[in-house]
Amino acid sequence: MTDLSAKRFADGLSEAAEPDLDPEALRRRALAALLSARERTALLTDSVDDGELTAQHSPLMSPLVWDLAHIGNQEEQWLLRAVGGREAIRPEIDGLYDAFEHSRASRPSLPLLPPAEARAYAADVRGRVLDILEATPLHEGGRPLVRAGFAFGMVAQHEQQHDETMLITHQLRSGPVALSAPEPPAPTDAAGLTPEVLVPGGAFTMGTSADPWALDNERPAHRREVADFFIDTSPVTCGDYERFIEDGGYAERRWWAPAGWEMVCANGLTAPLFWRRDAGRWLRRRFGVTEVVPRDEPVLHVSWYEADAYARWAGRRLPTESEWEKAARHDPASGRSLRYPWGDEDPAPDRANLGQRHLRPAEAGAYAAGRSPLGVGQLIGDVWEWTSSDFLPYPGFVPFPYREYSDVFFGPDHKVLRGGSFAVDAVACRGTFRNWDLPVRRQIFSGFRTARDV
Length: 454
Prior knowledge:
Layout: H1 3-16, H2 23-46, H3 50-54, H4 64-83, H5 115-135, H6 150-172, E1 196-199, E2 202-206, E3 222-226, E4 229-232, H7 238-246, H8 258-267, E5 275-278, E6 281-286, E7 289-292, H9 304-313, H10 321-329, E8 330-331, E9 336-337, E10 384-391, E11 411-418, E12 435-437, E13 446-447, E14 451-453
Parallel strand pairs: 10-13
Antiparallel strand pairs: 1-4, 2-3, 4-14, 5-6, 6-7, 8-9, 10-11, 11-12
EC number: 1.14.99.50
Protein name: Hercynine oxygenase
Enzyme class: oxidoreductase
């Protein structure tokens, strides 16, 4: 990154650093985020044996042991070396765990660290990082990489993102049940919810310059204009999607984008990933358990093409990314963009289904306390929501601290997802957070809601 780019990013941080986060509060926040991420990593890797850790459960995913050592290596590179100025511990493995140098399908053939060594390496790095965190100034006037604890927040988010990836691998694996969690809360007033709400048009602030841990593609804050539109108050449910299937949705070319129809025909698709028909019922496999598809739960494991086809069939469309963010953040009473649909406060268990607290989405209409001022619910957590938008930079975008996080993915090949899922931790999920993926992807924890013009 050029010095000029670093200055532009730093200027954005200094304009908006949250005033209530003093250096010691930031230090505590960073420590909690790092420890929480590592606790989850341990759960995901200690719940299976070494054979399961080193196996490749799908060519779409890395062996779990690769993710484990990659987490440690990224932490070493950014926090030990870049922030702490320490000598490298294992520089010889940097290329081995470079996500751009080796495809996921090829990683099992690499000379990866075995499970015990990978664990020891990640633990060694973490012990040294905690010393660096204790000694690093986190004040506003510091280096852009450490100002307001950015690098520590970035690394915690990176680990949580890989934890979500490892949870996807757990869903794809065919071994015995390894994970368990309590059921999410049931809705308390779903019967009274309207199916859709009107979002008034006009300008609003999209993106952020204020959140000190926001990543580069969320920046900078800027004004966007949208027309009036209607949006679903809940994500599309499995029951909704079943009606699309039963009406011949996968057999009707007219509902599908050309590339989506090619995908359906080439792979013989008839339903979301992990669904199958048995004795007149739809069943699905979820983390090793086969169960009847829950009709009131948001549909999961659908590609962008499937979401788009359903929306066309229903006489609706997918929301644009701008529409989604306005529905999620705009407060008509104040005219302000909120950090989350419910306000600026951090997520709590009664507001959103996050952090692998549950191993499934909650039923549509749950989490009344998490609804937006307009009454749109479950915008944060439960399922990633496909939008109609390509993944593109905001005006004034500055790559930071490396191009490979966002910049190299911009363009028409990737579609934007918003809102997070039950597999996403709160540190890596906010009203401005942007995810992206190829429109064919189905293994991710993706669903959608629909919109329509006025």
